[in-house]
């Protein structure tokens, strides 16, 4: 009997040791939680005075909070194309917002993060809002993801004619669904209209299940939340009947979701093998008033190339690797994730397409400065600003004549994060250098635009 017990104990120790060795040798897991329309100021750790985000704040406490991190567009589809392909949106041909009427999407010839990681046998899942084409050739399962669960586009699309879509009324009614947006599993519509009151919970349950089921191999979980893009919906336990509290309640449920994902990673025993990234697709939809967020102290919000439209919150956690409790003012952007993940996973970057993103691995690990010293701000196909180091040049262009420059403003971002003081007249040489830099890059980029995916 004692020999049996001793053998069982030795077997358990050996199994634990082999699991430890396997985890130590395998490439890291990657979890990207991508909020929709969450503003720069919409977290406690970024200084919001009233929003309660304890799990997001925990990410900042146990990892690094980045102050100068950017989305690649001030709108949905373009920013998602950039994150997944590592390229400026214009290169992919997706520069605007895709609607259900569109017959285009992310070209199957593009190489996504999921496809890059497939080289190292990663399990991959997309759970949430896709918004890069709702037709079969453009869905996540055609772009390297083993599975997909979520909405193919924004939750305010496919409006039902004649229905009252007043956001206050929708929030107070709890059951009103004046949008016919579908919920999909892989390529199949499983619910229409999607029951959005339970959407965050159901996506979270899918994410937890994916983590649990794939703890024994490297995995990539891309979790682009549908909200806090309007309309806002929450489960009963988060609900407040006051529409003025709709945004806070929605953020509270997303924060709960973050906590569930972190707990699942811990329970699966892969916390030390997992890099978690939390960020947003663009700035807040200020026009939605109390249904939208805040970019303070930045200027403007969604749809704008001022900082409030494209500078976004970013938190990264990887125990024992990424410094804990650190605030980094190094520059980075969502399209840097593809080359960064490739480097950490030990796989090659795609050679057939130009990759604009840079490998930030040494920077996020606290070993070196960021290799990114410049950033170009596009709205659609128009280059409207360029940042190099501390200086940002903002170019105002007529909508119908994008090749013309109506006016130029220069901002020193470290001392003027709100872009209130134009210093162009005081720094003519910097204006000249940045104008030349912007013009040269714009010409190069537009000479190598790739075709968007389309249905003939």
Helices and strands, with pairings:
Layout: H1 2-25, E1 29-35, H2 54-62, E2 64-70, H3 76-85, H4 89-92, E3 104-105, H5 113-117, E4 123-127, E5 147-150, H6 167-173, E6 183-185, E7 188-191, H7 199-213, E8 219-224, H8 246-267, E9 274-280, H9 307-310, E10 314-317, E11 326-333, H10 337-345, H11 361-364, E12 374-379, E13 382-388, E14 391-396, E15 407-412, H12 428-446, E16 453-454
Parallel strand pairs: 1-8, 1-9, 2-11, 4-5, 4-8
Antiparallel strand pairs: 2-10, 3-16, 5-6, 6-7, 9-10, 12-13, 13-14, 14-15
Helix pairs in contact: 7-8
List keywords for this structure.
single chain; Alkaline Phosphatase, subunit A; 12 helices; 10-stranded mixed sheet; 456 residues
Descriptive overview:
Strand 12 (374-379) and strand 13 (382-388) form a beta hairpin. 29% of the residues lie in helices and 18% in strands. It has a 10-stranded mixed sheet. It has a 4-stranded antiparallel sheet with strand order 12-13-14-15, covered by helices on one side. Mean pLDDT is 94; it is low at 7-22. Helix 7 (199-213) runs parallel beside helix 8 (246-267). The protein has 12 helices and 16 strands. The protein has 456 residues and is an alpha/beta fold.
The CATH topology assignment of the largest domain is: Alkaline Phosphatase, subunit A
Termini, distance in Å? 72 Å
Mean pLDDT: 94
Q: Please give the CATH class of the largest domain.
A: Alpha Beta
What's the arrangement of strands in the largest beta sheet? 7-6-5-4-8-1-9-10-2-11
**What helical percentage do the residues reach?**
25-40%
**Radius of gyration over all CA atoms, rounded:** 22 Å
**What does the main sheet amount to?**
10 strands, mixed
Residue windows where pLDDT falls under 50 for at least 5 positions: 7-22
Structural class: alpha/beta
Beta-strand percentage? 15-25%
Number of helices: 12
Instruction: Give me the CATH architecture of the largest domain, please.
Output: 3-Layer(aba) Sandwich
Q: How many structural domains are formed by the residues? A: 2
CATH superfamily (homologous) name of the largest domain: Alkaline Phosphatase, subunit A
Tell me, briefly, the overall form: globular
Number of strands: 16
H-E string: HEHEHHEHEEHEEHEHEHEEHHEEEEHE
